[in-house]
Amino acid sequence: MTTTSPQTPAQPSYWNQAGGQAWVDLQGLMDGLNQPIADAVIEAGFPGKGGCVLDIGCGAGTTTLDMARRLGPAGASVGVDVSAPLLDAARAAAQAQGVANAQFLEGDAQTFDLGTAAYDAAISRFGVMFFADFDQAFANLRRALKPGGKLAFVCWRSPADNPLAGAPADAAAPYLPPMPQPDLNAPGRWAFADPERVRGILARTGWRDIEIAPLDVDTPIALPDLMTLSLRMGPLGARLQQADEATQAKVLAAMTDRLRACEVDGKVAMTAACWLVTARA
Ligand SMILES: C[S@@+](CC[C@H](N)C(=O)[O-])C[C@H]1O[C@@H](n2cnc3c(N)ncnc32)[C@H](O)[C@@H]1O
C-alpha cells in the first residue's frame, strides 16, 4: 500500500477554490468513469416515482439530474453542496438538459437547515466523507428524512484496496521533498474506508437497517487522462510546480512508467473499490 496517497482536503475553502475548479474542469472525464457508481447509488436510493430526494455533496449535479429524471416530473431532486463553482456548473447542466425538477442549495450539509422529515431519501456519490463532525452531519441528514426514508451512498474503501490511487504520487516521491504522512481517518477521501467506523456513526445518529457492501467498478482510463487527474486533484500537481524543470521531467517520466506498467488493451486498468452503504431513517 502506498504511503503517499493524496488525501482530498475537506475544507469548504478547498472546494471553493482550486479543488472545486479542478472538479468543474474534469467533471466530464470523472462522470464518464463514475457513471456505474451513479447508477448503483440511484438504484439503491430510489424511493419511487414522484419522491423527493436529497443529493449530499452533489458537486456538478450529475447524480442529482439522473435522479430527477428517474423520479419524473412529479418528483423533486435537491442537491446540496458547499462549493459555489460546482453548484454553478450543476445549475447550468440542469438548464442545458432541460431538467426542471432539480434544484441546488449552497451550504454545509453538516449544519445547513435541510428541514425536518422533508425528504423520502438521501443519496451521495463520494460526497459524505468531508464533514468536520460526522455525527453532527449524519444526525442533521437523518432529521431531514421522513421516518423510514432511505439513505444510500458510495464512499471509498482503503488505499490498499485502491492501489492505483496512490501510484502516481509513489512514483513521484523519490524526486520530491518528503510529504507529511496524511491522517487517513481525518475528514477526506479515505475517511470512510473502515466499515465499522461508518456503521458506528450511522448507529449513533439513529439510522437503522444499516448495510455496507463492497462495490467494485472497473474504470479503465487512458494514461494521459490519469496523468491529468493525478496532477489536478490533490497536492501532487502543486508540489511538482515548485520543482525545477529537470526534476519535473524525471517525475513525469517516473509516473508514466509506473502507470504504463498497468495498461491493458491501451488503458490503465483501474478499479474503484468502494462501499455501497444503505440505511433507513
Ligand atoms: C468528491 S466530490 C463528489 C461530487 C459529486 N457527488 C460527484 O460524484 O461528482 C465531493 C463533493 O462534496 C462536497 N462537499 C464537501 N464538503 C461538504 C459539506 N460539508 N457539505 C456539502 N458538500 C460538501 C464538495 O464540494 C464536492 O462537490
Task: Report what the structure shows.
α6 (163-172) runs antiparallel to α10 (245-260). The model has no long low-confidence stretch (mean pLDDT 94). The chain is an alpha/beta fold. The chain has helices spanning 12-16, 18-45, 62-71, 84-96, 134-144, 163-172, 195-204, 223-232, 236-241, 245-260; strands at 52-56, 76-81, 102-106, 119-125, 145-156, 208-218, 263-264, 267-268, 271-280. The strands form 2 sheets. The chain has a 7-stranded mixed sheet with strand order 3-2-1-4-5-9-6, sandwiched between helices. The structure holds S-adenosylmethionine. Keywords: Methyltransferase, Transferase. One of its GO terms (molecular function) is methyltransferase activity. It comes from Phenylobacterium glaciei. This is Methyltransferase domain-containing protein.
